[in-house]
Amino acid sequence: MEKIISLTKRRGFIFQSSEIYGGFGSCYDFGPLGAEMKNNIKKAWWNEMTKNQENVVGLDSAILMSPQVWQASGHLTAGFADELVECKKCHKRFRLDELKEKKCPECKGDLTEAKKFNLMMKTFVGSLENEAATTYLRAETCQGIYLNFLNVLNSMRLKIPFGIAQIGKAFRNEITPGNFIYRTREFEQMEMQWFCNPKAADKFFDYWKKARMDWYLKLGMKKENLRFREVEKADLAHYAKRAVDIEYNFPFGWKEIEGIHNRGDWDLSNHAKHSKQDLRYFDEEAKEKYYPYIIETSAGADRSFLTFLVDAYSETKGGRTKTTESTKEVELTLKLDKSLAPVKIAVFPLVKNKEQLVKKAKELFSLLKTRFVCQYDEVGSIGRRYRRQDEIGTIFCLTVDFESLEKDDVTVRDRDTMKQERVKVEELTEFFNQKINT
Length: 438
Ligand code: ATP
What we know:
The chain has helices at about 1-10, 30-50, 70, 140-145, 150-155, 200-220, 265-275, 300-310, 355-370, 380-390, 400-405, 430-435, and strands spanning about 15, 30, 55-60, 80-85, 95, 115-120, 120-125, 135, 160-170, 185-195, 225-230, 240-250, 255-265, 280-285, 290, 295-300, 315, 330-335, 345-350, 375, 395-400, 410-415, 420-425.
């Protein structure tokens, strides 16, 4: 993890938030390459969950909602609170369920009785800071979907089964954030809620469970690093009838990256009760009204980011590129899927002190960068430049050499196979269109 964290900072993927002020607890900023890669992850998820599915539509609902939402959802009452104990000596707080003994894990001091601590982040709307003006930053994106169930159903003239997908920020005042961006207090979720007939819920649960695992595999994640974990009845969240986690084998152990839940009619029936609106669905064929069951797939964009990064990170001792300067070093390659890699093509002139080579390379860079995310680099030996690109997962490196000036072609080197081939300049755009194809 330390190596990965240092790579992400050094190469502009992730910075600590408010770094010049000494950092701000478990908040992170995505740098230029991180922002590209995170957008790529969200795009891959969005395409998979809307374009590639039948009957799933998108939504982008507000972060701030009526505080009644959180009464109805159970976040302010049941479940969404961790039991905390405080050390009487050092005053640090710990989650009761994470303690191995009844002593402070840091200073061995005595602990207080356990108290519930709500994870919702409070804020005030308007000019008064009183109870009436209190609301919360959403702790999950799905509530905005339930509130819009009827709006989407009616405006889009849908019939169940159908799904609503949403990507957006969520906030939780986590007691034990950590493991870099694995658990933070501000994060992005990618959630899809599937509304179906209660009788079909088990079937669809299995469908989405498989579909979600396939998504990670399709994007190149190693099979042996992924597994399902059925959540035991006693550990189910207050809304869930059944839950399966997709877990990843991180350097810090097997951990959840996504949850697939059968939420039954908990959400719609509770929102109906609190809002006094009829949120049932009228089934024209069966001529009956009922609350659809909801199958939820809930993933984190930041957590997926970390997972793809960890899975793609690869070291080669003695050098992959076999340049003389690299044979004693360890070379890093991010073997990210083509669709996720932040930079698709790097453009190099063979040497920087030959005007014609630089001119041609810059022309090609200008041409290609309107279609693909590209970098131009003329500093150092070609070997070093390859390695700088491998480290950030760039898929192709293109070099303009002396032959290019005569034959109007360039060398294209593939990150994974390391194969080099000559491609005519006039065919370059089409070549990359076909190879990168995202
Ligand atoms: P955990 O047990 O890790 O706290 P959870 O069971 O509370 O997670 P859910 O409420 O099911 O998580 O949220 C669904 C997904 O949202 C998680 O699988 C994860 O990818 C993401 N997520 C949840 N909490 C965080 C967080 N604090 N930081 C980053 N991502 C998160």
